[in-house]
Structure to design on (215 residues):
């Protein structure tokens, strides 16, 4: 018996007592599993997010709203960025102190080659997941098109805390619309060969910096 036949046989046995006319919607499925392991502990959630982002080799910074423009300007200057992609809905004050950096508006007409020539990109996010250290972008006004977070080599992502931070993936999914262009980011782009030698920047930004804006 092949592996395929074994699997299909198990499926048939599992469905043996299910009437053919029954649809999945007719049978309620209990969803009583835990959605999070640290409900209500916002400080613990933020610490978990920061730790897991760092585990994935993202560089984590903490600031308040008033200090965000200076932080972003400092990060771009340290990178030597001369140009930055700007989503259409990015709050203009975020880049107010980035003097001498050319702002490139996110445009559908931009080619991958043109975006590759831009030094950095600054975006917001839709939600950040503490348990996995994952940032999710959904193409919102302060995030722009998916490709702007995949092509420039340096990505600065701003997370508003605590309102954009959740503990777990189940909590994140409740906030997200599956028809939107979701990009899930866990650290800088990286891959490993058969020798487990890690190479960063293969499929996206080589450097990911996350600004946690504490409210």
């Amino acid at each position: 018996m092949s592996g395929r036949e074994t699997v299909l046989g198990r499926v048939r046995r599992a469905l043996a007592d299910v009437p053919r006319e029954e649809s999945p919607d007719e049978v309620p499925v209990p969803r009583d599993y835990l959605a999070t392991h640290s409900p209500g502990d916002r400080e613990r959630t933020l610490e978990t997010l920061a730790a897991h982002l760092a585990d994935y080799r993202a560089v984590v910074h903490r600031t308040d709203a008033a200090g965000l423009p200076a932080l972003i300007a400092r990060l771009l200057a340290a990178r030597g960025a001369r140009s930055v992609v700007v989503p259409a809905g990015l709050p203009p004050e975020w880049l107010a102190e980035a003097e001498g950096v050319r702002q490139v508006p996110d445009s559908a007409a931009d080619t991958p080659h043109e975006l590759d020539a831009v030094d950095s990109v600054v975006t917001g996010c839709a939600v950040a997941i503490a348990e996995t250290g994952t940032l999710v972008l959904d193409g919102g006004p302060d995030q722009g098109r998916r490709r702007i977070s995949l092509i420039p080599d340096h990505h600065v992502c701003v997370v508003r805390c605590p309102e954009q931070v959740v503990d777990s993936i189940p909590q994140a999914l409740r906030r997200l619309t599956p028809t939107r262009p979701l990009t899930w980011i866990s650290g800088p782009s990286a891959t490993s060969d058969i020798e487990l030698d890690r190479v960063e920047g293969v499929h996206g930004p080589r450097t990911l910096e996350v600004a946690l804006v504490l409210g």
